[in-house]
Design brief:
8 helices; alpha+beta; four-stranded mixed β-sheet; 207 residues
């Protein structure tokens, strides 16, 4: 059985949703970052990056959300979570998720975790001010160019959708009104109606 290490409020939620969509048998371990669980030796032995998510499978450990999402799509092809039969369409899925991982997620993180990149009060203040603007600009590009509707890739639901859903959920905490991105807002609401999302959010709420 698979084992997913995640934490509340992190991108690990996207992986948990994808696993639920796939019908995968998976144990979910919710780590307490307040207790620095991600830096304890037992977890570092699993993921030396001291980050979540991490997915333990029979072959070993997979880290990084795009890699885990890709694994879920390929390991459970019957769920239809990616266009595995079309190399170009699959590349588009990977490109979108790579953009979320390499640019949009860090843009959101700089406001709240600036200490990872700087130490001086002035630098931290600059990041707190600038990061939401960068985040909003990135979401504006996604709105204008990449959400085809009703799902990211069009009519087909893919591993892009839980990823965008979780990233979108962070907009309000940065004071960004999701309503300025109508397609993203519609996507977010549509995701909230999916059975897998309701199930996972119920588990998260239950602790």
């Amino acid at each position: 059985m698979l084992k997913l290490f995640t934490a509340t409020g992190t991108i690990g939620l996207a992986c948990e949703i994808a696993l639920e969509e796939a019908g995968a048998a998976c144990e979910v371990v919710r780590m307490n970052f307040a207790d620095n669980a991600q830096r304890q030796p037992d977890y570092l032995a699993i993921n030396p990056k001291s980050r979540v998510p991490a997915l333990v499978c029979d072959q070993g450990v997979i880290t990084e959300a795009p890699a885990i999402l890709g694994y879920v799509a390929q390991a459970f092809p019957g769920a239809g979570l990616a266009p595995l039969e079309d190399a170009f369409a699959m590349a588009q899925v990977q490109a979108f998720n790579s953009y979320l991982c390499s640019w949009v997620h860090p843009a959101a993180a700089h406001r709240h975790r600036g200490y990872r990149w700087a130490d001086t009060p002035a630098a931290l203040a600059d990041m707190r001010e600038k990061a939401p603007k960068v985040f909003a600009e990135a979401m504006g590009l996604i709105e204008a160019e990449y959400v085809r509707g009703p799902w990211v890739m069009g009519q087909r639901y893919t591993i892009c959708d839980p990823y965008l859903y979780v990233i979108s959920s962070w907009l309000p905490r940065d004071g960004i009104d999701m309503a300025q991105f109508p397609k993203v807002a519609d996507h977010f609401a549509r995701m909230g109606e999916r059975a897998a999302v309701k199930t996972v959010l119920g588990r998260v709420a239950a602790g």
